[in-house]
Amino acid sequence: MSTIALFGGSGRTGERVLERLLEKGHRVRLLTRQPMDSKVGIDVILGDATNQAAVLETVRSADVVISALGTDKQNVLSTFTPLVIEAMKQFNVTRIITVGTAGILQAHDSDNYRFETKESKRTMTTAAEDHARAYELLRDSGLAFTIICPTQLIDEQSDGDIIISKEVLGTKYSGPISRNDVADLAMYCLTNDAYVGHRVGITTES
């Protein structure tokens, strides 16, 4: 089993990833801003993902990094990503799996990001821009990255066939996708190299 440095593990998608990691017997180094009860298999690091020392401590002794961090108007991902890249290189960790957004997949009809075209249903692009910057940093890092790019995330079960595709969304008629299915894809990527070096769209057909 591996030791996983997990960021965003207390969020609605991240908690599902954490649950699956523990079920599979992995050791988790979890960065969190809030104290939590001790659990078997978890090393809790108190701190913030935009703090260099906290990121370094979380990545230390890890085999793989997984991030389900969200973003906000403070450009969290643009700040975090250079820190985690530096930490990974310092500790010779090469594999990182992150959860992004379908907005940063390539549009079907141009070389633009989806969020830059009418293909996306977004009205605000601030979050997508932050995700795009994180993608570009990882793309140019030389690390073995995978960015899982879901459409609208829902807590309930996905309705319809799940479509997974590299670089572009697998359908122009996308629907919402369950957080559980995103967590399952993260676990698949942990043990399979099929999506290394790619943005991976995950959605349902609407």
Global shape = globular
- Please give the radius of gyration in angstroms: 16 Å
Report the sheet-strand fraction: 15-25%
The secondary structure category is alpha/beta
What's the mean pLDDT score?
Answer: 95
Strand tally, please? Answer: 11
Could you tell me how far the N terminus lies from the C terminus, measured between alpha carbons in angstroms?
38 Å
Order of helices and strands: EHEEHEHEHEEEEEHE
Main beta sheet: strand number and arrangement? Answer: 9 strands, mixed
User: So how many helices?
Assistant: 5
Low-confidence stretches: none
Helix content: 25-40%
Described by its quaternary structure, the protein is single chain
Describe it for me?
It is a single chain. The chain has 206 residues and is α/β, with parallel strands linked by helices. The chain is built from five helices and eleven strands. Helix 2 crosses helix 3. It starts with a strand and ends with a strand. The relative contact order is 0.15. The model has no long low-confidence stretch (mean pLDDT 95).
